[in-house]
Amino acid sequence: MVKKEQMKKSKKDNEDKNEDQLNLEDEVETLEEEENKDKKKSSEEELKAQLEAKKKEEQDNFDRFLRAKAELENYKKRIEKEKAETIKYCNENIIREILPVVDNLEMALEHGRKSNNLKSLIEGVEIVLNQFLNGLEKFGLAGFSSIGEEFDPNRHEAMMQVESDEHDPNSIISEFQKGYFLNERLLRPAKVTVAASLDKLNKGHGNTVDKEKKKTSED
Predict the structure, then answer these.
(1) For residue 179, what are the β-bridge partners?
(2) pLDDT in tens, 146-177
(3) Is CATH 3.40.50.12780 correct for 144-219?
């Protein structure tokens, strides 16, 4: 009898133990599920925060792009405006130098109308001419003299040949029009008369001037 009671008690204890074990396992499983839920929730919140940060970074980059684009457009407009003004007023300094010459020419003409003194008029015009040339020299203009020099097709244009025993053949006797350089580059060739010997003229042998005249006529 006692043994049977003991067996019942032992069985009940085992059942209680099993139930406790099951309850413990359920609690552990519940804790794990809650922990997983917390981890998942934390991960989702972290992903949302990262996404918001990326969106903000993207918006900031787009705003910077728009500002840079606007600044570039304003810069282009400013450069175009400055370029247009530069082209429009590029001759301002030259004209400023020429205006005093115009003033002096007007005064010289007015003086010439009221005076019969031709010498003083000529002197006045010479002064104005020198003033004009000095003004142009400031911008790189330089004239060159050709009389007495040998004909050079690179800076002379032969207008005619004249027989002369007093000058060397192919030398320049006179100028129809003076030549000029602009900053060491030929701006306008001098138009000149060139000396030629009688023998060459009669024989019709082409010299440098002949070739230049032929080239000019072909052009």
Answers:
(1) 144
(2) 999 999 999 999 999 998 888 899 999 999 99
(3) no
Max Cα-Cα span within the chain: 172
Domains of the chain, residue spans: 91-139, 144-219
CA atoms of 82 and 55, how far apart (whole Å): 41
At residue 216, what is the residue type?
T
Paired sense of beta strands 172-177 and 190-196, if any? antiparallel
Q: Where are the beta strands (DSSP E) in the chain?
A: 141-144, 156-163, 172-177, 179-182, 185-188, 190-196
Say how many CA atoms lie within 13 Å of 151 toward its Cβ.
28
Greatest mean pLDDT among 21-35, 128-142, 192-206 lies in: 128-142
- C-alpha 34: how far from chain center: 70
